[in-house]
Amino acid sequence: MNQKPLKTIIVGGGHRSLTYAQLAEIESDKIQIVGVADPDENRRKSIAKRFGISEDKCFETAEELAEAPKFADAVINGTMDHIHIETTIPLLRAGYDVLLEKPFAVNEIEARELVKVATECNRKVMVCFVLRYAPFYRKIKDIILSGEIGRIISIQTNEYVSYHHMSTSHVRGKWNNSDKCHSSMLLAKCCHDLDIMMWLMSETKPAYISSFGNNMQFIRENAPENSGTRCLVDCPEVDKCLYSAKRLYIDHPDRWAFYVWDALENIENPTIDDKIELLKTSPYGVCAFKSDNNVVDHQSVNVLFENGATGIHNMVGGTSYGTRTIFISGTKGVINGDFEKGEFTVSLIDPSPDCEHKDTTYDLKVGDDTHGGGDLDLVRDFVAYCRNETPSVSCTDIKDSLSGHLAVFLADRSRENNGMPEKVIL
Q1: Of the candidates 200, 224, 201, 190, which has an alpha carbon nearest to the alpha carbon of residue 138?
Q2: What CATH number does the domain located at 6-127 have?
Q3: Comparing 6-127 with 131-218+293-423, is the CATH topology the same?
Q4: Domain-by-domain residue ranges, the chain?
Q5: How far does CA 297 lie from the centroid of its chain?
Q6: What is the mean pLDDT of the chain?
Q7: pTM of the prediction?
Q8: Which whole number is the average pLDDT over 205-229?
Q9: Are the beta carbons of 139 and 361 closer than 8 angstroms?
Q10: 322-374 confidence digits (pLDDT tens)
Q11: Which of 5, 96, 130, 243 would bridge 374 by S-S if both were Cys, CB 3.0 to 4.6 A apart?
């Protein structure tokens, strides 16, 4: 049966919201963008023009949108982490289903409150854990469900954050200071990974969490000798330092353009000179060793599951390249993979007289997508979910996404208390 496209409003017109909204331009039968709410006038007008949104369907805030008569089915909420609750709850009460960017809350109290309100309002909230939709992780999930490697004994995940990503997002950028963004490094960067762990271990639940971590690298003591406070203003090491803003952003102006040059959005075709001038005053031009960052650059999380299985997640920031790796040990075999390469190998215990192992390698590399090809499949699943169709095994209903968030919150609490284990109460 043909259905009308899901009428959807963008709330917070940032990079992630626009990535999800692309489906409206690719598969217009599934989703239609009919409104926008964003405090930035230039961004609001740009989105309205792109999707043909009338002026009366443009709002400055989610609150204004919630007060207006309901004119759509759903909302894509891509606002900053710490305002997810205040922007989502009014929209749930106004009758909208919500596709909500991760993390859906920045602390346990807010997380439980949002689950409670979504239940009371009988609204659907799906969290944007796009890695569940990447072919790499989807295939791993299928293999686990098939029983091929037996019962899981241990699951180990690692995230290595490249030096230029670490610099841009967590040393100089929006997520560098938990007092400002209200999000820890683990929450902002690794809630994906803890969610993947909980999803792959869905046969059981987490029971206890412990964690250690700190910031070893991005501190004043490690700044180059004679370095200044701003790379393009007073630093003689600007052409040598690994974290020079000139090297990272002027020599490679397109790599992190959406974040670094956001203040130039109102200028058509800004020049390199415009960008140099911006770096002289913007946070992205501050010395990486003298910024106001207060988040960890590495952290390890240990999980004990109710059935006795264990999980480990390691996050290391400032590596030469970024990737995620996974190693799952089962009673019949193991899975060993590298997300960046898009490859994993299933090694099964060989019952033949050779007494060795039988290996099968899967190549699921997806190019030109930082989330391994999962972004638009997530939106397709959201549409199916809102239409009361059967969603995929990857579906990230907010209730299902709670355990991964709790794992992050409790890990950070444990880290702050010298690794003291925390009991998980779902």
Answers
A1: 200
A2: 3.40.50.720
A3: no
A4: 6-127, 131-218+293-423, 220-285
A5: 17
A6: 95
A7: 0.91
A8: 97
A9: no
A10: 999 999 999 999 999 999 999 999 999 988 887 889 999 999 987 666 566 78
A11: 130
